[in-house]
Design the sequence.
């Protein structure tokens, strides 16, 4: 069985935790897009791990992890991540990690440009500052440097010279900055190439061959549907295809080989960075839920914006991604709220929207229409069976199923591996 696990909100839905659990039953886990803008948390016992580029299955010994061609790789960040993990006793031999030779490389000028472009914008995106947007832009404008280029000094030299010629001019003339010397970057990136060479291969052939041999593959999404470059709240999005459709282009595995897609959602909603968020809380609940849910970015540490569950948004995500099962994460965070709201539609200029509007002003001005339910006011942390959940918690889950028209298979009630209900 080849399964996709991805986010159906604005990221940070708890994908890391779910992937750690689901990957126990698959042979290979593959990241298909994004870069180290992602922060996926896995808690095992009293240890917490946050993965940025490595797939969240890496803690399972004997499982293979793949960084697909659709990912943008910052080699410095990846090497740091591997080194830090090895220091904590997780060995990452070359037979356990494969990096696509076609994946694009995040260069120092991408990181700096990310920040400079944000500074110049009036409507800031609030990026993670990891150079993700500029790296994907270079890929599309056909001047990107790929992982395979780090293994070929001649190609790297030619591409880097070309890039610096243009980029340094932009740095000087647009941003009033000094620019980069060729030698420094060239040497640094050749060294990264040498270090990562044992992991670099044609992951397309590796994956398709594994699938032919009936191995099961888990595709790990980063970010979420509403950060997707096509379907998100553009322009407040990331620069890749985080939806299920991104799996095929980001790994070279054909759509017919994907069996199903599971969407991760929080029992409420969060967002980091700028952009419209119709169900965002006012101050009091914002503080309360942020504190209870520990809603601070796993990558940048920024406080996450929090709000009620938005079924208009998630229903749209269910459609786009062909979702067959839902995972509702962080239900426990709502444990002591006397009343819980679900957004079922938007109102804008006297009109009711039952689906997600595309127009930016409509989305920004959308007033949520809420349905209110009684809370359950009891701890759910220790519960492992659906029927043992408080009645109102069961009602909440069932109401979400009704609104989203899809079944809930997983309900997460805490950060730890075993704090989950599987139906
Ligand atoms: P991801 O980017 O989708 O992998 O999610 P993040 O790791 O960025 O953020 C999810 C946060 O919620 C992490 O700190 C997790 O440890 C935590 N978490 C995941 N599931 C649950 C849950 O069911 N309950 C609680 N309280 N925390 C959870
Ligand atoms: P995971 O995989 C939440 C947000 C940023 C910003 C926008 C663009 O952990 O769910 P970028 O650096 O990608 O150009 O920033 O996207 N963003 C995320 N928000 N979770 C993430 O990843 C995110 N990755 C990017 O905050 O609003
Ligand atoms: Mg995250």
Sequence:
């Amino acid at each position: 069985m080849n399964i996709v696990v991805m986010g159906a909100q604005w990221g940070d839905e708890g994908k890391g935790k779910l992937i750690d659990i689901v990957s126990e039953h698959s042979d290979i886990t593959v990241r298909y897009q994004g870069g180290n803008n992602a922060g996926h948390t896995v808690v095992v016992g009293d240890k917490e791990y946050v993965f940025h580029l490595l797939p969240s299955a890496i803690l399972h010994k004997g499982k293979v992890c793949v960084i697909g061609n659709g990912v943008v790789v910052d080699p410095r960040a990846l090497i740091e991540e591997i080194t830090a993990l090895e220091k904590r006793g997780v060995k990452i031999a070359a037979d356990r990690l494969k990096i696509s030779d076609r994946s694009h490389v995040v260069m120092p000028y991408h990181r700096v440009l990310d920040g400079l472009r944000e500074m110049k914008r009036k409507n800031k995106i609030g990026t993670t500052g990891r150079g993700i947007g500029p790296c994907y832009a270079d890929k599309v404008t056909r001047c990107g440097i790929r992982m395979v280029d780090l293994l070929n000094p001649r190609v790297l030299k030619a591409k880097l010279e070309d890039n610096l010629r243009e980029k340094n001019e932009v740095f000087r003339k647009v941003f009033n900055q000094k620019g980069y010397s060729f030698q420094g970057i060239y040497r640094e990136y050749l060294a990264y190439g040498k270090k990562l060479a044992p992991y670099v291969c044609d992951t397309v052939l590796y994956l398709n061959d594994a699938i032919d041999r009936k191995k099961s593959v888990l595709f790990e999404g980063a970010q979420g549907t509403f950060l997707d470059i096509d379907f998100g709240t553009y322009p407040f999005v990331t620069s890749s295809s985080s939806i299920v459709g991104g799996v095929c282009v980001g790994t070279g595995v054909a759509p017919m080989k994907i069996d199903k897609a599971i969407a991760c959602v929080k029992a409420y909603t969060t967002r980091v960075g700028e952009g419209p968020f119709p169900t965002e809380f006012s101050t009091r609940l914002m503080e309360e839920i942020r504190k209870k849910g520990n809603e601070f970015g796993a990558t940048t540490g920024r406080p996450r914006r929090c709000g009620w569950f938005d079924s208009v948004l998630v229903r749209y995500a269910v459609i786009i991604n062909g979702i067959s099962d839902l995972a509702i994460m962080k239900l426990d965070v709502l444990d002591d709220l006397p009343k819980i709201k679900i957004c079922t539609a938007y109102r804008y200029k006297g009109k009711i929207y039952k689906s997600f509007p595309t127009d930016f002003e409509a989305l920004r001005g959308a007033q949520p229409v809420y349905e209110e339910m009684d809370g359950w006011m009891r701890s759910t942390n220790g519960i492992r069976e659906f029927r043992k959940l408080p009645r109102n918690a069961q009602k909440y889950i069932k109401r979400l199923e009704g609104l989203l028209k899809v079944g809930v298979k997983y309900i997460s009630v805490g950060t730890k591996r075993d704090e989950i209900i599987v139906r």
